[in-house]
Specification:
By secondary structure, this protein is of the alpha+beta class. It is globular. The structure holds succinic acid and manganese (II) ion (MN). The site of succinic acid has 8 residues, from strand 9 and strand 10.
Amino acid sequence: MRDALPPVLADDSSRRVVEKDGGVIRSVYGSHEINDVFQRLTRHPRILNPATQILGSDAYVYQFKINVKAGFGGDVWRWHQDFIFWHNEDGMPSPRVTSVAVYLDDMTEFNGPLFLIPDSHRQGMIDASAPSADGEGSALGRAYKNSPSWISNLTADLKYSLNKETVSRLVRKNGIVSAKGPAGSALFFHGNTVHGSSNNISPFDRVVAIVTFNSTENVPVPVEEPRPEFLVSRHPAPVLPLSDDSFLC
Ligand code: SIN
Ligand code: MN
């Protein structure tokens, strides 16, 4: 997968989101649609079978992204739950959805590991109406001023990020897990798990591929302004597993 990255990251299209400095790549979306290696990742039985087990149904790829978290430049992902975006923006009915982060680099204490609050998925969808700092006049507002409106779902200043009081309350109760692990690890997490990550001041990139599998029985209802298909899929074609050695050919 690391060998397959350079052309995927070089694709200068709206699939690609840069950090607010405009230079460093933050994320690339929907690469499984156009790249055979990442397509095979989504069909790999070691992630697909657990996903269908968790969902209790067939699964389809709802979202696919590669988060780069570049050394010396990868920016923060503020504390958030994923499902609130998918529910409010895309019309996903229920959090019958699971994400699996596959680590393409070692994720250590140095390079901005994912932080998760254990058990926070049991809180359901938490109100995230706290004021956000991404107004027109802010650095972030200016950095993305020519971008489509959905950009605020993908940048450092996430639209539905949780306020300090909420995070403090949950952390006091349940603590924080830093999901460190060697390259090749996979982390499954619930659509309502509260998570985020800090910026990366180390020299080490922290690339992860995150596949979000949605239940084929949980297809989003139509919304007024659907986000592009490369961000959010509304086509519940069940993913069919390949063989266990499908990366070796
Ligand atoms: C995410 O919230 O989807 C990912 C955050 C990260 O890569 O640190
Ligand atoms: Mn997230």
